[in-house]
Batch of 4 targets.
Target 1
Amino acid sequence: MTKQPGASSSAASVLHRIIVMLEVFSSVTLMSMMLLTFVDVIGRYILGAPVFGAAEMVSTMLALVIFAGLGIANARDKHIVVELFDARIRRLAPGWYDALVQGFSICAMSLIVYVLYEQAVEAAHVDSKTIVLELPLSWITGAIAFLAALSVVSQVLGLLTGAHTRDEHHLEDV
Amino acid sequence: MTIALIGFAVLLVLCFLGFRVGFATLIVGFVGFALERGFEASLAMVGQQVFHDSMNYNLSVIPLFILMGVLIVHARISQDLYDAAYAALGKYRGGLALATVLAAGGFSAVCGSTLATAATMSKVAMPPMRDYKYSDRLASGTIAAGGTLGIMIPPSVPLVIYGIIAEQDIGLLFIAGVLPGLLLVTLFLIVVGLVVRRDPLAAPPSPPLEPERRKEAIRGTMPVLILFLVVLGGIYSGAFTATEASGIGAFGAAVIAILRGNLRSLGEWRECLVDATVTTATIFLVLLGAVVFAQFINLSGLPYDLLDYVDEWALSPIQLVIFVCIIAILMGMVFEAIGILVLLVPVFLPALTVSGVDMIWFGILVVLVSEIGLITPPIGMNVFVVKSVLPDVKLSAIFRGVTPYIFALVAALMLVLAIPQIATFLPGLMR
């Protein structure tokens, strides 16, 4: 399983760009989510004027944050893992083990992309909109599906470039 | 029922082999549902669950409370908390260890992350304990155990996840966590006292804090106290929902960090926001996998078969709760809080509900059990976190150090089991 240095470095460069883009996008979205929630509460209780459609905007931002975050988490393989026997099993054939475990993750993520894409197509077909702001659901679901697809790309590139570091799993962060 | 048990077995094997928990639960749930209802139906179910839960307004509480915790860590407030706790308890034997417990409790009140609490306390509390020749066993054990307070004292992400799965009010759950959290702090303080009495050399005396530093530290902790009171007081008084409180809390944490001279560059902001985003994504992946898996389990009829067994065995509600807690303790040896919650709660939910178990009380019990899992072998996550921050301390010393705290946690579990009012009294006042 040897890798071409040129191909590997260009893959690393593409992965780096994707991660930077996702980091900036998710940071702005999460920050906006925090500010919007804060302004909505202050508006409601102090000024008597909540932000119109704040809950829908926050819901949309939540989905965008999750799937942008998954792109970063997938690239670095920062997922919850039960680290009991895996290190010993991996030592038997590290290359095959990584391919199997990461391949499984890629398949699972691809399933999410597919079902979200189907949801977006369905939403476009029936022209469904959110209740308050009447935002087209097909656009929202489509954006989430796109981010999920990007996370599959970052997963594959992470596997190819070795960005998945064994010691950095988020075993539990709460 | 058989297919559900096979599903659980496959899931456990995949997890033990090192497959990512979130992806494994999602795929096992998808395949299991497909075997029962067909491929197309399973695809539709996964699509609806993923879309619905990733856009659930009530779940926005998760990233915002995580952000609040990350911002509080970046506010570098832990040193003041520790010094203020030492100012209060430093005169007693083992004062530095007592201060560690109190500071961990205070930090948990605005952080909500057990790992962040353990890691931060390792950096703040270990150097002075080393300086005054505390035994590694007492020092590291106290830090690892103190970190577990992070998931009981509100805000707590596992309590949010439990609330979502069990369809319980998150605000009530937070309020319910207050007294058990205080009980745990008290029991941990008693443990320090007993350990020091048994082995005085484990904690040689240390000098009191200088008066100037004492005042400075107490002043420094005021914003944390105010933030905690605003967030929890807002929920308790009904002024905010938990989701609104999370937004207020995150904003307040950002203001505290800025006022303390941190978060002054875009790079620092980005680091915090990305950290919170990635943690959110990993938690949601497990959550989305779990809801898909739960659909499969519900379809298999396992929860209702269990209901029949409860009837057949004539289990009383308390016997049922003890039975579930024992399973949770066994799971806690392998899985962490979220794993226990997402795998265990949906299965026993119907049986517990029909038996008339107070689900707020049960939520506190499950989180208590998860806390035990955080410091017991083979996977005591907090122990490993302390080890990673303090590589020169032997793992065996940390595990020996946490042992008395495990007894304290078990005692707390038994107390909350025997006296449910410890968890239900405050929520009862709100209802």
Target 2
Amino acid sequence: MLRACKVALSRIKALAFFHHTKHNKSMKVVEKDKVISGMLRDELKRCQEMLESLEKSISGLPKGAMSERKKRYMNKVYSYYYLKYREGEKVISKHIPNREVQEILKKLALRKKYEKEMQSYEKKIAYLNKILRAGKRRRHGNIA
Amino acid sequence: MEISLKNKNIFTSEVQELLRAFFLVGFFDESLLIGSWVMPLYQEAFGISYVLRTMDIDFAVKFVFSERAEKVDLEKVITDLGYIPVVMRSGIRRFTRENFTVEFVAHRKGGRNNQVVSIRKWNIQHHPFLLLIFFSASPSQQILETSR
């Protein structure tokens, strides 16, 4: 009986020891330092605001890709431009008048830039969320 | 105050190219760099240690000498560097490239009016910011050897 108690006590001590090491030595800077976690939250907010505004900006730009169709008529070749884009499961091909082609191409290029920028913000938001969530989880672990 | 620094690598390459472009169009005659990105200069010149850097760079527009003077399309200068304009919810226009944003602010003389103000001469919009005058009261001018 005494021996069993001693074993149990040593296990509890070992657990207490591990608990201590887990929550102090390997604790991340984010959860230890309020200044750093505050900065990360500010950065997250900035990125979310930027992403929201980028989404709004991109909504006014055309999507898809421009394609050219050539047709021969009376020994002459005519070019017709179409904007191909997806709407749900449908692929839509919209005719673009020649005078608007350059403007649409410019807008498509700009959309690509916006999409690339949005991706970089999404990546950053995911990264910041991961760090901040991890810090939160550990803090809750401490309380329990 | 004018200070001359020998170290040409105070800023990251993207900040350096932005400052150079603004300097070449004379933007710093009427405005100044503020916020965390001015600290590397102070660190180099005065030995002040400051480690934090943010992902946005702020410029305070202090004076506009004349609206009739030659206009400079600063938006074009920035977009030529690969930045894209983004209109924020507040109405202010920021510029972003790879998570790095450029923003303009100016002193708000009083009241509570936070409305975005346009500077036609520079083709930019700035955010009125209370007490900004303290930043621009006695600015230091750094000679960028690389930009001359």
Target 3
Amino acid sequence: MRAWQFQKVPFVFPALILFFGAGCMIPIAYGQGVTLNVRQQVVLTRWALRHIQQRHWPDSPAQGAGKFAVGITEESLREMINEAVANGRPRENTHGRPGEIYEYDFGRPIGTTINGSPASRLRVVISTRGQVVTAFPF
Amino acid sequence: MRMDFRLSEDWDEDFADMATVEETDLRYYVAQGDVVLGTDQTDLSADWGWIPLVDFALALREIADALSESEGSETFEFTESEATLQFDRVGDKVVITSSYRPGEVTVPFSDFRKQVDEFARRLDKELLQRHPELGLNPDYQRLKLSRSH
């Protein structure tokens, strides 16, 4: 009996989280038809990850582009993007570009701007399909 | 004023089928290069090699459209940095400044409008020469780079 009760816990607990957590998920729509859920993680495709690494990784030779701080990993990038999208200020993309822009200030250096100054903010561009287009410190 | 572009050589290696590239790709990843912008006295060029030139052409056309109606200011945001170009309509002139280089360029609005349209037309022509399959791409066609003003 005791064993059964302990085995039940791993099932019941996640189920409760899903049940009550679902009530906290509030769909939010921002311009151009994109509907993001504040609790939903946006999609970072392999393509977009490679693009960000080529432009914005600490060892990227690309000029005129914000750079992440040394130590950035794919996992920490995903975490920062999700935090920026969940808590950042959204706005429509500019001059007819599809999608939305999310900007979030982490309150600590996360990289450098194009002139080498410390950058604490992250700009994330999300496509109309909810996929990350690019993300960089500024 | 000079407004021109230099296409980078290696951006198209990642796009196997230019006939199906979607608008977001066209505005962020395709046709990357440098933007040449300035006068003999002032250089506001963005020679970083990664500027998405289709996007630049379309955005500047939208800026020119907005400034054609009344005095005001428009800001172009580069896609991969906080860098900006500022366009201020003052009377019949446009004053262009940047966040990344000193100086300003002042040009009659009619010349600015003409240069913006020429930029888009030249880019369209060069891209279609390099990749004729773009002519079959519905998203690229819808953007109408070579529209007549």
Target 4
Amino acid sequence: MPITQQYEEAVPLAQLTEHPSNPRRGSVQVIADSIEANGFYGAVIAQRSTGFVVAGNHRLKAAREQGLDSVPVVWLDIDDERARRILLVDNRSSDLAGYDDPELAALLTSLAGSPDALRGTGFADDDLADVLARLNPPSLDELAARHGDEPTDHDMLTSMILRLDRPTANDLRAALASFPGDDDSQRVRGLMRKAGVGTLALADDT
Amino acid sequence: MSDFRGPVRALTSYWYYRDIDLDGIVSMLTEDGVRPTLVADSGAFSAYTAGADVTPKLYGDWLDQWPDLFDYAITLDVINDPDASMRSHLECQQIVGRPLVPVIHYGEPVETLQRYYDLGHRLLALGGLALRDMYSEGKRLRWLIPVFRWVEQHPDVRIHGLGIGAFKQMWKLPWWSVDATSWASGTAYGLTAVFDDERGEMKRYNRADAVSHNERPARLLRARGVDPSVLAGKYVRAWSGSVGADSYRRAERWIRQRRGPITPPDDPALTVRVDDGCGLRIHLATWSGDIGQLVGATDALSRGGMEKRWIPVS
């Protein structure tokens, strides 16, 4: 298919309308931040006959939020069906794209060290951290700094699951509660001493 | 369409496979001429919950039936007593008549690894990490970090993680191999494991999500040629398992690409010289009824032709 008939000009925002069938829900804030950092670049793509935007609906919203009077527009001479197709494919092609993590990390890292850091990129420091975390597993020291590297007494406790009918469960709870102790182990040992079983429990008596 | 063509890896337990023709299993799991890699364990815990006992003799006789099939076999272990566990391991090796991979359990002192090392073991399995009260990542890591620090001091040692199903756990530590049931564990509840190659995340695709076209897992499935609707509505559990198996194989590739090579250990229990040992090996724990899902892979799903490759084992 040849190049679609198109004409570019600066157009007052009042002459543009968000496409009424646009199913896309994006982040206007990211685009607004970009306009603030980088200025409005590129153009909104719109159907000449209707003024409906087929590509750049969120850029149009962001431009309004930023108080712009006009934006560059590429007018397309297309019918309504083609307008809807472009509306979809412009977003869908973006959906299907991905990133090369090493190249993304290199680019973000180079900008993160600049005075403006990641301003106007749509990425935040956490995003860069996520990319780097996908590229390199954490070291043992990093894991230890976050979680510790020595099991606590609580870590060493073992949970046991008993499948009891309700009256028996209630009885057991009451029996355990009748023994003094700061934790379950002490109370269970008390119960076992009473029953005369358990090496550890009986040793407590000696 | 699945673009993964590494070997299928499975953990096959004596308890589930004791009456199964494993040559048939190997044949079923062979993809494009690439044979599967199999690891054996006793399945003693499963047997116990079913009211049965697995003895070293039974386990050894079964292993003898398939002398060249398993890359390695894991010992019959005793939980919560390192000394008893070591005695049991040595006895088990003697009865079975072949070296087995010993198991060190959560909470045992790091010195336990050294004791097995001194006996000549270079492949050690860590167990007790999949129990119900191991929900806390910090709890697991506070024990695992000193263990892996010991491993750093012994570069000829490799570690197998028993029941390491969480992708993040696989990624964070330098396992040589792990086994996991989690590739299929959500299927009973309509949850399918879907690996996001771009973000390095294992997502759980809820049966209910399948109606939404905006859900990222649905997009991932479509990109692999799988119609998400097969995981909704007329939900077929086997298909969910197949997508889960494919996802864990993708996760293995993802980790291998980033962690780089981890060569096989020079361990007497290793009966097959693996030539693809350059990185993590995720063995999908199976029982005989679900093993076919490992190869009912997504490309078959996309053709609607899964039945041709789905060979149920009775």
